[in-house]
């Protein structure tokens, strides 16, 4: 029999919860601009308060004129009318200036600063985060979510300063003008604010889900576009379209409901404001008839009663806007709050000879599924070491550990006797040149792509590296030769040629340690043999790790390590391992079995 779970207490949502407080804290770098905006808001309130008083005075002058019919009406009205015109003109100018300031200075600097921090944060996060998180979701947080957060500044200032302060000042003046007409306005205004806050809060959870689904949509679109040829090859367009439509429908449904709850706030404000206006008009009329108060006083109160709708609407907009952007802020703050990988500040002690040792290393991506256990390797300087084994044996994992993309769970990795855990990651990676099975080229010239790891290289050095990698000939046949602009999606070079360019990039970097992870997977057999000869010539005296499924590429290796389930089951030269007729011989012969 299942036990009934005790009901969990509902978490109270408040306007000034931790997310909102942090949003306010994020304004510190631009507090000067925010303070200037606040000053403009205060001046706007002064103008808003002065205008009805001036209008009431003008009405009183007109009323007196209707009794006396003095000939100097224009002379008596002109100063007040001119002052009223000036107040409205100043109010318009400052309103425009405040909006321009918020949109073009405060918001821009806030947005730029936050995106820079996110970019810096991503540099300090472990590679495991990038492996597990879709690129589209990260892009969505940096672009859309930060963009929504920028609107928070305007909303917070309007809600916490301009709107509430203006309502307070107007309420105070109403009581000073005539407390009998002020009471219905002051009683109804808090009611509208409470209703607005409640409705805006109800929409917050829907905004959370809406933005999370938006991140999933962006990730799915990015994934589908990146793998477009595969999608076409397997006729999966309909499947992806249905998946996208289902996700989009959920995203739209949550967006509609969240927008409904946010949008209904303003009509509620208008309705309550209309009630207050009607009550004030009725009470004011009764007071004129039975108590003989000046008409100008009633006009002033009515104008203030109508004017209070403006800050109420701004408060309503601010409340809905704050709940809107808090959903985005939580996603951005979640990324900013991720734990960073520790990075020591130690440097490599020269000279670097290239000896690499793994001592009793344990590692697993999932603690529940051990991968590498008690692995020990001692690679001498200048050796060409091949690492082979079936899929999932841990070959690429060793590369990840050497490059410190992941940290080991136990044991030690040493380079020239120095524990890499005491060396900064950037210093450690400066020792390695790397060529992966997945080529990567950025948009730029061929020369710039080859010099990616060595930006100060001369054109002569670039051409020499390309010649050694057997790609100089096809580069010179390109429309602009080494100055031809290419990218990852470029059709000007084939997949094999892209791989050759990345090999040339590694050669030019001239690091003491070289890692080739399936580096010849996209190269034809003839080019593969040429590259092997070039590697032997250029990598002389340097330690080289080669990971390959095609065992024909590593027959000349000084040492072959055969991995199986994270353990070295055999090691030796190609001939020695074949002679043992063990697991390596089984792998090798299986590739050439008829």
Task: Walk me through what this model shows.
The protein is an alpha/beta fold. The chain folds into two domains: 319 residues, Up-down Bundle (ABC transporter transmembrane region fold), CATH 1.20.1560; 236 residues, P-loop containing nucleotide triphosphate hydrolases (Rossmann fold). The strands form three sheets. A six-stranded mixed β-sheet has the order 6-9-10-3-11-12, with helices on both faces. A four-stranded antiparallel β-sheet has the order 2-1-4-5, with no helix packed on it. The protein has a two-stranded antiparallel ribbon with strand order 7-8. β9, α19 and β10 form a beta-alpha-beta unit.
CATH-level-4 superfamily name of the largest domain = ABC transporter type 1, transmembrane domain
What's the architecture of the largest domain in CATH terms?
A: Up-down Bundle
Instruction: Report strand %.
Output: 5-15%
Helix content: 55-70%
Which value, in Å, is the CA radius of gyration? 36 Å
How many alpha or pi helices? Answer: 21
Number of E-state strands: 12
Task: Report the top-level CATH class of the largest domain.
Answer: Mainly Alpha
Rough outline? elongated
């Amino acid at each position: 029999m299942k036990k009934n779970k005790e009901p969990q207490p509902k978490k109270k949502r408040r306007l000034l919860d931790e997310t909102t407080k942090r949003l306010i804290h994020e304004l510190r770098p631009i507090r000067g601009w925010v303070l200037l905006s606040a000053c403009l808001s205060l001046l706007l309130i002064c103008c808003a308060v002065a205008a009805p008083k001036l209008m009431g005075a003008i009405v009183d002058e007109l009323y007196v004129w209707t009794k006396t019919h003095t000939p100097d009406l224009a002379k008596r009205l002109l100063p007040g009318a001119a002052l009223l015109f000036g107040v409205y003109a100043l109010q318009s100018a400052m309103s425009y200036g405040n909006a321009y300031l918020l949109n073009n200075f405060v918001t821009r600097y806030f947005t730029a600063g936050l995106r820079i921090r996110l970019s810096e944060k991503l540099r300090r996060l472990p590679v495991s985060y990038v492996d597990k998180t879709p690129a589209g979701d990260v892009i969505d947080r940096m672009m859309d979510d930060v963009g929504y957060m920028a609107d928070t500044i305007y909303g917070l200032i309007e809600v916490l300063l301009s709107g509430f302060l203006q309502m307070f000042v107007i309420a105070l003046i109403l009581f000073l003008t005539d407390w009998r007409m002020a009471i219905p306005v002051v009683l109804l205004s808090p009611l509208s604010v409470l209703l607005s806050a409640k409705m805006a809060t109800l929409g917050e959870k829907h905004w959370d889900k809406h933005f999370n689904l938006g991140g999933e949509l962006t990730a799915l679109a990015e994934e589908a576009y990146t793998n477009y040829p595969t999608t076409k090859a397997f006729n999966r367009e309909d499947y992806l379209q249905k998946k996208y439509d289902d996700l989009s429908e959920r995203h739209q449904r949550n967006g509609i409901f969240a927008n409904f709850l946010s949008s209904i706030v303003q009509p509620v404000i208008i309705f309550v404001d209309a009630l207050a206006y009607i009550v004030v008009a009725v009470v004011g009329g009764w007071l004129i008839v039975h108590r003989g108060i000046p008409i100008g006083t009633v006009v002033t109160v009515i104008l203030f009663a109508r004017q209070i709708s403006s800050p109420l609407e701004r408060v309503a907009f601010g409340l809905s806007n704050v709940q809107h952007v808090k959903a985005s802020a939580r996603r951005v703050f979640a990324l900013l709050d991720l734990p960073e990988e520790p990075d020591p500040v130690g440097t490599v002690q020269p000279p670097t000879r290239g000896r690499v040792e793994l001592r009793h290393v344990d590692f697993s991506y999932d603690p529940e599924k051990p991968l590498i256990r008690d692995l020990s390797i001692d690679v001498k300087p200048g050796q060409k070491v091949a690492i082979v084994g079936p899929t999932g044996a841990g070959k690429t994992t060793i590369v990840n550990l050497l490059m410190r993309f992941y940290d080991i769970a136990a044991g030690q990795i040493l380079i020239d006797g120095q524990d890499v855990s005491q060396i900064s990651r950037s210093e450690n990676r400066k020792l390695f040149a790397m060529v992966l099975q997945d080529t990567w080229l950025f948009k730029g010239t061929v020369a710039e792509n080859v010099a990616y790891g060595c930006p100060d290289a001369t054109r002569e050095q670039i051409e020499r590296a390309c010649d050694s990698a057997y790609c100089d000939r096809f580069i010179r046949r390109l429309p602009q030769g080494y100055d031809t602009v290419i990218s990852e999606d470029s059709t000007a070079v084939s997949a094999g040629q892209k791989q050759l360019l990345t090999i040339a990039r590694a050669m030019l970097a001239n690091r003491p340690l070289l890692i080739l992870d399936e580096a010849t997977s996209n190269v034809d057999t003839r080019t593969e043999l040429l590259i092997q000869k070039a590697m032997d010539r250029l990598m002389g005296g340097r330690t080289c790790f080669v990971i390959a499924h095609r065992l024909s590429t590593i027959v000349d290796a000084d040492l072959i390590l055969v991995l199986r389930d994270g353990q070295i089951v055999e090691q030796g030269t190609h001939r020695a391992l074949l002679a043992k007729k063990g697991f390596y011989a089984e792998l090798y012969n299986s590739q050439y079995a008829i």
